[in-house]
Amino acid sequence: MLAKIFNQFNQSAVKLSSNTLILSLRESYIALIPFFIVASVITLLNQWFDIADKGGSHEFLNTFNTLVWALFPLITLLSFSYYLSKNLKLHSIASPVLVMVCFAASTGYIIVNEAGIHIDSKGGVLYSILMPIFCCYILHYFASINALKLVGISTISLFLRKHLNLIFPYLLTSLITLICIPFISDFGNKILAFLMNYHQDASVFDKVSFQMITAHMLWFFGVHGDNTYHILAPAAYTDYQVLEGLSSYNFFSIFVLLGGTGCLWGLIIACYLLKNAEHERSIARISAPLAVFNISEVMIYALPIVFNPYFLIPFLLAPIVNGFIAYQLIDHGLIVLSASENIPWFTPVLLSGWMITHSWTGIALQLVLIALNVAIYYPFVLANQRHNITGKALDMLVKRYSAGHVIEDKAEESFAKSHSEQHIEQYSLKTVTDALNSGALALYYQPKMDPLSQQIVGFEALLRLIKNDGEVMGPWFLATLEQHKLMHVIDSFVIDQLEVDLDNFARQGFHPKISFNISPQNLLADGYKRVVKAFSRFPNQVEVEILESSYIEDFESTIELVKYLNKHNIQCAMDDFGTGYSCLSVLSKLNINTIKLDRSLLPIDGNIKSAVLYQHLAKICDELGFKIVAEGVESKLHEDVVKKAHIQCAQGFLYNRALPYNVAVELLKKQHHR
């Protein structure tokens, strides 16, 4: 029962993590990490060294922090709009401009009156998330309606055509937004007023709990919780005495938020305690120096904690535990406070404990609380590491939908260079970009079988396009992309996705040998560097399939390439041997590991000569030291020929078509348990 509940939770977590909206929010906040860090550091330096108070021209630094966080909603809105537009395949400049205009005009963030133009950050903080969602999804809907497009296929460029076709969707989105947002604002203000009135006579416990939970929930949903809470909440809920001589400011910064929002020292240490957790440890290493000064943005947005169901419970529980224990110990006199003035929030942990108590008891309390936070976070970090998607896997979820967008951008360059070429070429490229923009790239895995034992001995990774209706198609578009010199976009996707999937196979306890194809031109140019960077950490597990034509066109370079890949524990196979270029004399000069015999060599209708030729080719390759893979095994007749040729690795529809990653894993699990 528990296993079933956990599996359901895991499926929901992965589905939530891979949602376009969540991925866009994650990307947008990661892009803002430099802004968060630099803004915090400038504020710290000014407070430490009193730069503004020393005269000169730096008095503006006293209001720098206020200005930065007043602009925070606008900066967040632009970043989120950009990434959401990109992932919805809208134009990533035109769409954010529309969002920004609607935001400025309708939310009350910018106020225009007789005194001039002013900013009211309270009027914009929540709309920095709501407005991009509202505008982008409406624009996405209208942009998909063909009747609203001004220009069809024509001789003008893809770039110009796309923007002309945005005019009517733009207009309709603007009208709907400007009409609806005031009603949404009124409804939101009524809810906020109700909440504040409900807590009008709140106790200290109510105020602490409300601040703790509200700020952390805002963080979890992608909004900068602490600043948002202090902007929206009345002063009575942000500046109050928790106990005599202990302000809410000191209580939260010294005894609750140890390492920043979410008590991140506990999370950082928990990440270091994990085994084989490259992503988690990398983020912890980056976050630790910043956590010294209680800056938490990197950990929250890059791990991520935002919209990650695995971290919701500890993210709320750790500060609650810290607040409860600290309150009780101080209230009962076991921790005696010696300072009542506010200690800056960026004061490092342990130092702040000493400053507030002037004794080792403050330091001891902070150490105990951090240890408890580690215990709270560890099981959830472990579950996240084992079952959730993190790091590059999340990046690939975005990338698998963005290939068409990248190709479309490159196509504009192609148009500028080839305007005088046949119109049909532009039409074919438009067809490809439309198909990619309306679907998602994926890697599927065709099993390679031992014909005798019927066991899986490896896979070939094959590119597929998944349409919106779920139909899976082969990569029919590759010839067009190669013609326009755009294959590097696809090759980049294949390499990155295979790297992610190899990690996922390993997490499931499997290390299958996997072969894949990339464009020969890109491989010989500098693609081999990306291959080595991605796969050298999977020794002898990855095999690059090289077309026989590559040897014919540039024999010496191909030989050197194979040597280089072998040196880095990446094997090579000659793909489709026997398809027109084959020369037996070449075999004696090859330094590859595997020969893949093309399906065209297999006999049709029991052709005895074909069977004899196939068996002798296999024998020659075997005696020359090559491993052999039989391609295109589609019938028992084919399998019999392969068995008689003593070939120990075959692939084809007789065994299985190309399968999604999760189905391939299930096959390996079934084989393992036999």
Q: Counting H and I runs of at least 4 residues, what is the number of helices? A: 28
Enumerate the spans where pLDDT stays under 50 for 5 or more consecutive residues: 415-427
Mind describing the biggest β-sheet?
8 strands, mixed
Number of separate strands: 12
Write down the overall mean pLDDT: 81
Class by SSE composition: alpha/beta
How would the global form be characterised?
A: elongated
- Oligomeric state of this protein: single chain
Q: Alpha-carbon distance between the termini? A: 25 Å
Question: Helical proportion?
Answer: 55-70%
User: Hey, roughly how much beta strand do the residues contain?
Assistant: 5-15%
Please tell me how large the radius of gyration is. 30 Å
Short description:
Pfam families: EAL (PF00563), PTS_EIIC (PF02378). With 674 residues, this protein is α/β, with parallel strands linked by helices. It has 28 helices and twelve strands.
3D architecture notes:
α25 links the parallel β10 and β11. Helix content is about 60%, strand content about 10%. It is an alpha/beta fold. α12 (about 265-275) crosses α17 (about 360-385) and α21 runs parallel beside α22. The chain is built from 28 helices and twelve strands. The strands form three sheets. Strands 5, 6, 7, 8, 9, 10, 11 and 12 form an eight-stranded mixed β-sheet that branches. Strands 1-2 form a two-stranded antiparallel ribbon. A two-stranded antiparallel ribbon has the order 3-4. It is elongated and about 95 Å long. The chain starts with a helix and ends with a helix. The chain has helices spanning about 1-15, 20-30, 35-50, 65-85, 95-105, 125-145, 160-165, 165-200, 205-220, 225-230, 250-255, 265-275, 280-290, 295-300, 310-330, 350-355, 360-385, 390-415, 425-435, 480-485, 485-505, 520-535, 550-555, 555-565, 585, 610-625, 635-645, 660-670, and strands spanning about 110-115, 115-120, 240-245, 245, 440-450, 455-465, 470-475, 515, 540-545, 570-575, 595, 625-630.
